[in-house]
Specification:
This protein is an all-beta fold. It has one domain: Sandwich (Jelly Rolls), CATH 2.60.120. It contains no helices and 17 strands. Strands 2, 3, 4, 5, 6, 8, 13, 14, 15 and 17 form a ten-stranded antiparallel β-sheet that branches. It has a seven-stranded mixed β-sheet with strand order 1-7-16-9-10-11-12, with no helix packed on it. A hairpin with a 2-residue loop joins strand 11 and strand 12. The protein is globular and about 35 Å long. The N terminus is likely disordered.
C-alpha cells in the first residue's frame, strides 16, 4: 500500500519506538455515555465540508459522507469543525464504492492548523487488505506503522464495508478494524487536542470513491 512518491495531501475545503502487531482481541464499542460527537450524515447541515475541485470532492451523499479523489498520489480529508481533548476514540464505517483496490480510507485525530500548516494523526486501510498509521506535521506526511507484505485478515477487501476505530491515548496510537486490533505505535509529537475527521486517497491509480457512515468520537 506504500506510495512510490512523496505523498502530497491537500485540503479540499477551507476547514477541511514503534510496535507493530496483529491481535485477535476484539475492541469494545464506545459506550453512549462516553460519546462526544456522532453523525450518521442524515442531515447535510451537520457541519462537514461540501467542496469540489480539480482533484476530487468531499460532500454528503445518499445519507452518508463521500470522499472522491480524481487525481493520483493524492489524499483529501474533511472535518466536522469540532474541538476535542487529545485522548479520543474515533470510529466510522467505510465502504469503497468505486476505484482502485490499492487506495486508502480512514479517520483522523488531533487535527490542527498552525500558520497554515496541517497537523494530525491518521489511521487508514486499503481495499486490498493493508493498514497504516501515519502523521502529518507542518503539512509533511510520514508513516509510523505499516505492514506491506501480506493482507490483514481483519480487513474486508473489495467493495465491502469495514468498521474502523482509532484510539489516540497519550502517546499510544492504535487501529482496530472490524473489532480486531491490527496495529499500534507510540509517538509523542502531536500531544494536544483538536478536531477529528475522515480521509481517503489514491496511490498510482485515480478514482478512489469512499462512503463513510456512523461516525463517532468518544472518550476512550
Amino acid at each position: 500500500m506504500k506510495k512510490t512518491i512523496v505523498m502530497i495531501i491537500v485540503l479540499l475545503a477551507a476547514s477541511l519506538a514503534c510496535s507493530l502487531f496483529t491481535a485477535s482481541a476484539p475492541s469494545a464499542p464506545a459506550q453512549s455515555a462516553n460519546i462526544l460527537f456522532q453523525d450518521n450524515f442524515s442531515s447535510t447541515s451537520s457541519g462537514w465540508d461540501q467542496a469540489s475541485g480539480d482533484n476530487g470532492s468531499t460532500d454528503y451523499a445518499n445519507g452518508a459522507y463521500r470522499i472522491y479523489v480524481s487525481s493520483t498520489q493524492y489524499d483529501a480529508w474533511a472535518n466536522p469543525g469540532k474541538s476535542f481533548d487529545a485522548d479520543v476514540s474515533v470510529e466510522v464505517d467505510v465502504t469503497k464504492t468505486a476505484g482502485p483496490e490499492n487506495n486508502d480510507m480512514g479517520v483522523i485525530c488531533r487535527y490542527n492548523t498552525v500558520n497554515g500548516n496541517f497537523n494530525f494523526y491518521y489511521f487508514i486501510i486499503s481495499s486490498d487488505g493493508f493498514a497504516m498509521i501515519a502523521k502529518m506535521v507542518d503539512s509533511s506526511s510520514s508513516f509510523l506503522a505499516e505492514k506491506a507484505t501480506d493482507p490483514n485478515p481483519a480487513i474486508k477487501m473489495g467493495n465491502a464495508t469495514n468498521h474502523l476505530r482509532a484510539d489516540c491515548v497519550g502517546n499510544q496510537l492504535t487501529l482496530y478494524v472490524n473489532g480486531t486490533q491490527v496495529m499500534s505505535v507510540t509517538d509523542s509529537e502531536l500531544t494536544g487536542g483538536g478536531d477529528a475527521g475522515l480521509i481517503a486517497g489514491t496511490f498510482d491509480t485515480a478514482g478512489t470513491d469512499a462512503l463513510f457512515d456512523n461516525f463517532a468520537v468518544a472518550k476512550p
